[in-house]
Amino acid sequence: MARIVMKFGGTSMAGTERIRRVANIVRKQAARGHEVAVVVSAMAGETDRLVNFCREANALYDPAEYDVVVASGEQVTSGLLALTLQSLGCKARSWLGWQLPVRTVESHSKARVETIDSPALIEALEAGEIAVIPGFQGVSELNRITTMGRGGSDTSAVAVAAAIKADRCDIYTDVDGVYTTDPRIVAKAKKQKAVTYEEMLELASVGAKVLQTRSVGLAMKEGVRVQVLSSFVGEDAIPADEYPGTMIVSEEEMNELVEKGDMERQHVTGIAHDKNEAKVILTRVPDKPGAVAHIFEPLAAASINVDMIIQNVGRDKGETDVTFTVPQADLARAQALLEDKREDIGYNRLITDSKIAKISVVGVGMKSHAGVASTMFSALADRGINIQAITTSEIKVSVLIDEDETELAVRVLHTAYGLDAADEAA
Ligand code: ADP
Ligand code: ASP
Ligand code: MG
Questions:
Q1: CATH number at 3-261
Q2: pLDDT, tens digit, for every residue of 24-75?
Q3: What's the 136 CA to ligand 2 centre distance in angstroms?
Q4: Where does substrate bind (predicted)?
């Protein structure tokens, strides 16, 4: 018998019929004698719908009120799943964020979990009751509703797993594991038996939305065993206990898998894309100490994450152009802040472009293998894809390109690194 957290994403929860399918998967796990806590997302599309309402109500919305609106999607699905489980004869109840409570920092719309009060939850689990917890939501020190950023239910699930010392956290989604790239874009993408925490963290942070970045960081820190697997399976599916999905593992575990011949050592583990960033260009910024700080300080104070930054070589008159990217969702706020600080910064024009995409290749093998970046640049150049910006880390290379070329770029790179599924058979 084990204690298991099962998380179901939006597509799995989209409608009462799918919730019934989920309830059956949960019931089966509980019937094996496991203690089961379930974390659910809102129905697919629901959070987007709620976000749009907020934008329509007030383009520069107050994040605290935004949280009140968007947290509601998960309240609906958690209640519906508890009801459906009860209809199947299971003992089940919902536990809303404020009821557990899931305490988070005050930072609205991107809150971080601080503590989860687990004694009552553990007591219910030990009494054989299935706990259904809405993902994504928590409560701040000031007793206001918070949410944990898009895709945040993954983090809720991992945080619950850490709090109740679960044996495993199974993330059920609409694909059957972590692939070499988004299988919806590249049909030849390959499912991985295992991916290291470090690689998954990097892949998630550059747009492989199968797991929220924070959930991977938290799992790594707390040593939570995470499996990604599909909820769209038939009656004869391999049980989750036998690991049909992708396990997120430590480097030591990965080395063991490679030694046993269960995994191949690869230079590139995956390719990810992100269309959710926007480019901001400030022209003719004074080329002097402190100028760049003037740009980024107000953005940091407003918790706006700046990603790629390029400062061009100074022009003749002691001026330079500064280009950077921010999440599209924060663009309106970033623009308003920068316009406000125009005098202080002293730039000439503020130009924005949301039609961009970031393409990244990730792999721990890069640490010891040269040439990954140059393969990327030549493969893109061969297809006439222009690179607007580049960033690198120890295990990642990212480029910024025109959004229209996203799919082509991902496919071309997948082939260039020999990741296509057909290559194996050849
Ligand atoms: P959920 O609603 O279950 O949280 P998400 O839509 O957040 O699901 O994440 C699952 C999706 O992630 C898949 O449908 C797939 O299109 C996408 N995805 C992106 N990169 C990958 C990858 N490397 N492996 C698997 N899925 C990926
Ligand atoms: N419903 C939220 C979202 O769409 C959280 C989640 O699904 O993980 O971002
Ligand atoms: Mg998700």
A1: 3.40.1160.10
A2: 999 999 999 999 999 999 999 999 999 999 999 998 889 999 999 999 999 9
A3: 6
A4: 47, 74
**Bridge partners, 5 (sequence order):** 37, 169
Mutation probe of ligand 1 site: the residue of 8, 40, 176, 182 with most atoms within 8 A of C-beta? 182
The ligand whose atoms approach the alpha carbon of 77 most closely is 2
Dihedral angle of Cα 161, 162, 164, 167, to the nearest 10 degrees: 60
* Token pair of 43 as six digits: 């129905």
Q: What pLDDT digit, counting tens, does each position of 92-132 carry?
A: 999 999 999 999 999 999 899 999 999 999 999 999 999 99
Q: Which atom of ligand 2 is nearest to the CA of 148?
A: 5
Who surrounds ion ligand 3 at CB < 5 A? 9, 151
pLDDT at position 313, please? 75
Residue ranges in the chain modelled with pLDDT below 50: 425-426
Ligand 1 atom at minimal distance to the Cα of residue 9: 3
pLDDT at residue 426, rounded to an integer: 43
Tokens of 57: 């109500």
Nearest-CA residue for ligand 1 atom 25 is 178
- What superfamily does domain 266-426 belong to in CATH? VC0802-like (3.30.2130.10)
Q: How far apart are CA 250 and CA 192, in angstroms?
A: 15
Q: Which token pair is 10?
A: 């939006």
Model-wide pTM > 0.90:
yes
H or E element at residue 75: helix 72-87
Domain residue spans of the chain: 3-261, 266-426
pLDDT at residue 422, rounded to an integer:
74
8 Cβ closer than 6 Å to some ligand 1 atom? no
Place of tokens 């995409």: 357
